[in-house]
Amino acid sequence: MTSDLETPESRQALTRLVTRLFDRWELDTTIQLNLLGLSESDQAQLIRCRRGEPLSTSRDMLDRVGWLLAIYKTLRLLFPQNPELRSQWIKRRNRAFADRTPLEEMTEHGLSGITKVSRYLEDQRGR
To answer: Assuming Cys at both sites, which of 38, 54, 64, 123 could form a disulfide with 12, CB separation 3.0 to 4.6 Å?
Structure first.
C-alpha cells in the first residue's frame, strides 16, 4: 500500500502550498532552496515546481515541507486577524532564537531549525 505522499497528485498539491507560502513570506530563491534542503545548483528543480511539477519523493524534502506548512498553520491560529504579521513573523527578531529571526534559525540549522521554530510556535499556542 502506498502512502498518500507517494502519489504525484498529492505531492503536486503540497508543491502548490509551499510555493504560495514562499511567496507570502517573500523569500528569495536561495532561501527557498535552502528551506527545501536543495543546493543553489538545484534551481531548475524549484523552477519546475513553480511550473506545476510535484515535489520529489525525498523524505527529507517532504519532512521539511510538512514542518514549514505546520509553521504557517500555527501562525494562522496565533494571528487569525493579522495576515501581515503571519507573513512577517519569520523575519522578526525573537529572543527565543538568541535575538535572531526564525528564518535565520531555519536556514542556518536546516531541518532541525525548522522543527525548532515549529515546536516553539506550538508551545506559544499552548499545546
So the answer is: 54
